[in-house]
Fold this protein.
Amino acid sequence: MENSKIVIGYLIYLPIVILLTIYVSKALFKNGKTFMIDIFKGNEDIALATNRLFEVGFYLLNIGWALLVLKISYIGIMNNQTLIEILSRKIGAFSIYLGAMLFINLFLFFRGRKKSKINNLTINTPEQINL
Amino acid sequence: MNIISYIIYLPIIFILMIKIGWILYENGEVFLNAIFKGDKTLVKNTNNILLAGYYLINLGFATITISCWEDIYTIEQLISFLAEVLGKIIITLAIMHYNNIFWLNYLSKRNINI
């Protein structure tokens, strides 16, 4: 009985986590396209390819992490209430982690944009390009 | 009794947070416009990403609070405890909200270029 509860927990946890990751990376990289085009100064091929590569990396990192923290180790009799509590902690923590990743990515976008602007301004002095 | 309280608590807090996020999303656009000096697509995209981040962190936090819930046996306890938890979260939201307003004001005064 305990085991079957844990399996139910996994079956609820996995779809939620994977759908959340997919939704977040869609939201991030659909909107990140303009940043990338800005960073690569309108060179659309490289911008889209880089965007795609970042997206794949984001998926790998987050789904990997979700699987890593999947294990529910609970000793004792498990009822519906404890299952809900454990699941809520896991999903909530994962969601906050995803939010942090989102903001890190946004920060990287801003940073890249700033760098490319600086490079654009000093393009005439070649020794300053590799800042 | 605990499960009933979860079923009452989750919709209330989710609807509240989604509503607040939407209000912030609609009104924050003006401030972002000031920061980005009117680059429309960039403003829209940044706003979307910020909204997603807001939802993730807030809803995640709201869900996490369930895991440290007291045991509830009577309806009295249910109401008082629900009120306590909801009140705590709403006050936290309010503080963060004023913090945000302060920062928006500060940034648009300094006219910092991102």
The helical segments of chain B are 2-35, 40-64, 75-110. Chain B has one domain: 2-110.
